[in-house]
Amino acid sequence: MTHANPLQRLDIPDFRALAGRVTGTSLIEISRNNPVYRGGTRDDHVYVVERGQVKTQIVAASGKRCLLSVYVVGDLFGETALLGMERLESAIALTRTVLLRIPAARAAAVLAADGSGDVLARQLGIRLRHQQQVVADMVTMPSELRLAVRLQDLAERFGRRGPGGTRVDIAFTQEDLSEMVGTTRTRIGQFLKRFRELEMVEFTPRSHLTVHEDRLSSWISAATH
């Protein structure tokens, strides 16, 4: 069974160049774990990551959180501002992060003027499809398998391959992983313990993840057949 990668790096341009062409763009710094914006609010800006990492998540009425995606240097997020609607998701800095804060309407006008307006439309479509895959996985996969697939996704997007495995240069906490998978931190801890015993993953003291992709892929393949 083949799974789409909801966190993969999309085939889109580095949007940092856009900032220099849009008047009113500013540079802002967000401390670790602080919000860029919150769900349920209006924000007429899009954002490009200049340094650091940002996650987006949705909080259900029950208080349960679901991590949607992670953005790194060059990525644009917050595109729903182009629709003039309030945010459904919240965006939170995973590290101390520097962002380019770009007025959405002016950005759209610049892209339309040079015939690049379809770039954002394509990006929105791809991300929507990936988020639909996340929802489908939540419904159809057991939570341990969901975690394995998400760890594989993280290795593919953020990993640096080396002789000791693929190191993911983002410090994901067990809480982040529980939001990503849709289960409790306790169960995440149990699953990770098993994965470590099977020598599929390792964690450094600073919560950086090393994935042994061949072993993890073999386990996923066996679990889905």
Describe this structure in words.
- This protein is of the alpha+beta class and 225 residues long.
- The chain contains seven helices and twelve strands.
- The chain folds into two domains: 16-136, Jelly Rolls, CATH 2.60.120; 142-223, Winged helix-like DNA-binding domain superfamily/Winged helix DNA-binding domain (Arc Repressor Mutant, subunit A, Orthogonal Bundle), CATH 1.10.10.10.
- A hairpin with a 5-residue loop joins strand 11 (201-203) and strand 12 (209-211).
- Helix 4 (143-158) packs across helix 5 (174-181).
- The radius of gyration is 18 Å and the shape is elongated.
Please give a quick description of this structure.
The protein is an alpha+beta fold.
Strand order of the largest sheet: 1-8-3-6
Structural class: alpha+beta
Q: Low-confidence stretches at least 5 residues in length (pLDDT < 50)?
A: 1-12
Tell me, what is the CATH class of the largest domain? Mainly Beta
Helix content: 25-40%
Find the CATH topology of the largest domain.
Jelly Rolls
Could you say which overall geometry the principal axes of the C-alpha atoms support? elongated
| Helical stretch tally | 7
State Rg.
18 Å
Domain count: the total is 2
Write the CATH architecture name of the largest domain.
Answer: Sandwich
Specify the biggest β-sheet: 4 strands, antiparallel
Number of strands: 12
Looking at this structure, what is the CATH superfamily of the largest domain?
Answer: Jelly Rolls
The proportion of strand residues reads: 15-25%
